[in-house]
Amino acid sequence: MSITPKIYRLVKFHISTKGISMEWLTETLVFSTTGKGMYMITADISEVVKRWEIQNGMCFLFLPHTSASLTLCENYDPLSRKDVENYYEHAVPENQPWYQHTFEGPDDSPSHIRTTLTQSSISIPIDHGRLSLGTWQGIFLFEHRISSQRRTLSIRCLKVN
């Protein structure tokens, strides 16, 4: 699955001291998901790094949601992604009689539990103009809700010159 982000805002700060120049770059991307699943967003993040012309630095990603998360996963074989999605369906199933937080539907509590088991933020080094991911690693927005959602991703990069 892939989704197209919308750029929400861009903020840029510049710091220089003792011959080392650094920039703190921030941008917010908005993704529209179509329900549960892992959405590969590696290309979207890589495009931001390329546009900012970052050769060396750090990329910090933060997803401020309680029913979706970020994860690094194999990006080559879609069956690997499917296995991860199926694992969470079995580990944290919907419609359990002991769930109390169900106001928004049968995926309410399970979505929040899945988010606590995954990550809301990821830090990735940038070397030689590229995210320093492993050969088969990809960055995924992991949607835990059944219905379509609008997800905001904060990107913060420290560019070292």
Characteristics:
6-stranded antiparallel beta sheet; alpha+beta; Jelly Rolls; 161 residues; 3-stranded antiparallel beta sheet; 3 helices
Question: What features would you describe in this structure?
Answer:
With 161 residues, this protein is α+β, with helices and mostly antiparallel strands. The chain has a single domain, classed as Jelly Rolls. The chain contains three helices and nine strands, in the order E-E-E-H-E-E-H-H-E-E-E-E. It has a six-stranded antiparallel sheet with strand order 1-2-9-4-6-7, with helices on one face. It has a three-stranded antiparallel sheet with strand order 3-8-5, sandwiched between helices. The radius of gyration is 17 Å and the shape is elongated.
